[in-house]
Structure formats: structure tokens, C-alpha cells
UniProtKB/TrEMBL annotation:
High-level lineage: Bacteria, Pseudomonadati, Pseudomonadota, Gammaproteobacteria, Lysobacterales
InterPro entries given in the database record: DUF1304
Keywords: Membrane, Transmembrane, Transmembrane helix
Lineage top rank: taxon: Bacteria
Coiled-coil residue windows: none
Stretches that traverse the bilayer: 6-29, 50-70, 76-93, 100-118
Protein name: DUF1304 domain-containing protein
Amino acid sequence: MYWIWIALSLTLLVAALHVYFLVLEMFLWTRPLGLKTFRNTPEKAQATRVLAANQGLYNGFLAAGVLVGLVRYFEITIFSLVCVVVAGCYGAWTVNRRIFYIQAVPALLALAAIWLAGRNLH
């Protein structure tokens, strides 16, 4: 029974992280927290702010998928978590390895906990 709560907590953590990424990329990209988080100069941040806002919107859609799945169709949550893992792996491969740990690992842990919770229900 405790795996269900662990799975729920990790899944909500993934959704919260992606809402945070949305805020960072859409609203704080050129501000001190955004500059520090993404190690950007003010000039580079200004030049890439539209791209970052677009990326932030996609992170919001990932969070929405995770949350809608929890409320309505659980398969959507699993699909959304897998999308987060793929995005995290691609980001780690193309941008910075730490993206894997920040984005993909929490989603992998949530998926593992969901799987363990499902095994323990039988």
C-alpha cells in the first residue's frame, strides 16, 4: 500500500518540477534566477527568450499530462512520464548531462514506484 503513496508523491514531484521549468523558461529566463539557473549571459538570454518560452510551454504540457492522467485517465500519466524521460535523455545528450538527473531520474523513479505499486495490488 505504501508504494501507491510513494508513486503518487514522485508523480506529483515530476509535475511540480515541470511547472517550475515552465515558470523559469517563460517568465524568469532573462531575470537573475533564470540567468543563474541556465548559466546564461543577459545578452544570450535576451536573444533566446522566445525559444525558451516555447520550451517552457512544452514543459507545462508535460505537467498537464501528468496531472490530467492522475485525475482522469491513468494511462496518460504513464505516457507523460515516459515523455519526460525521453525529453530528459535527449536534453542530457544534446545540452548537459545534469538534465538527465534533474528531469529523467524523477520520472524514472515515479514509473518504477507505479510499477511496484501495481505489482503489490495483486
